[in-house]
């Protein structure tokens, strides 16, 4: 089919996520039809190549068309593609679970499977609530979540979400939560400065728990980075302190590692930076290197054993499951991914790249519209502001992110903006040279849209 026909049919038959469909009638908003990918590059049907600076929605880690992963899929396909996970099992799921638990080397020992990040969060919320019920505390059913948080788009996940644009409309359908301040260091809700503060924003959680812990099941966070809320980054110490607050009030700590897990922060899981162990973690995006939908919710023996019972159909059973639970094809990839990462000695492998990013993003600092530069491991974000002194943000109508995105495309990189942030979440296999190239493209795109002339 030719491109014109493809685009016509795309618009005619498909309803896209997070998109006002009418806006797609404009030429500049037409989707780019990707034909293939190799490494960090995507290629469209006209033969244009783009650096995939967003890892195809933060999922890809080993680059596109990785030979070993592709082979793994074909190999597994010859054995079994899918089998019911009630009453049956298969080698990939057993081997993967064992390996994952061994890598966590701590108290997280039981792996529950589903197939996307939102669902991993749903599972965590239900598990946390039921745990308290089984412990004789059925009134503990509220959750604490943060402003600017994003945990997915299913209704439970939306309930604990804190980004108005995505979540507000659905409020009448949601369960009630307690919302705490966001640890947004650049725009501190407490009016503090990061280098002198004592993580004062945690007070807002502590106050909620002090008053209402008896009715609260858990606190849910995105560790180190509130990603979809605007790449808001905060120190690991926050999580360390939050752990003790949760312990003090008998409230579970639910750690949504969907975006940060699988080495995005430089370690397997972001919570490791805080030297603590959460009660439940949710993982998805990088779990299959970006090749198959899969997610897990991992928890402790303590929670698991509260459900363990002789009564097979009693209320201690965890009633949750999906038709694609522990999908063998996805599990074969997840297992191979862990093996590849291990062989790469991934933590060491990422260190020079993380340093290279730190060095290269410095070139943005002197730009008159760059308010803040942030980095956590392999994630970099540059927050643009109208005015550096007042930190006045650009408004949605300014469309700055969009303009930079369009310039980026012309220069060969996908710089999908996040609010007023330019960000990089690239596949791990990006080379130092390519990091230079990508940041140069972003810098050029920024200067094209917002020229940095002397005032
Ligand atoms: C993307 C994301 C989710 C949702 O995952 P999906 O697979 O898109 O449902 C949940 N939590 C966080 C932190 C995320 O970044």
Describe the structure.
It is a single chain. The chain is an alpha/beta fold. It folds into two domains: 32-65 and 346-449, Aspartate Aminotransferase, domain 1, CATH 3.90.1150.10; 71-343, Aspartate Aminotransferase, domain 2 (3-Layer(aba) Sandwich). It is built from 14 helices and 16 strands. The protein has a seven-stranded mixed beta sheet, sandwiched between helices. Strands 13, 14, 15 and 16 form a four-stranded antiparallel beta sheet that branches. β1 and β2 form a beta hairpin. The mean pLDDT is 96. Bound molecules: pyridoxal-5'-phosphate. Residues 116-118, 121, 150-152, 222, 227-228, 256, 258-259, 284 line the site of pyridoxal-5'-phosphate (PLP). Pyridoxal-5'-phosphate binds at residues 116-118, 121, 150-152, 222, 227-228, 256, 258-259, 284.
Short description:
The protein has 14 helices and 16 strands.
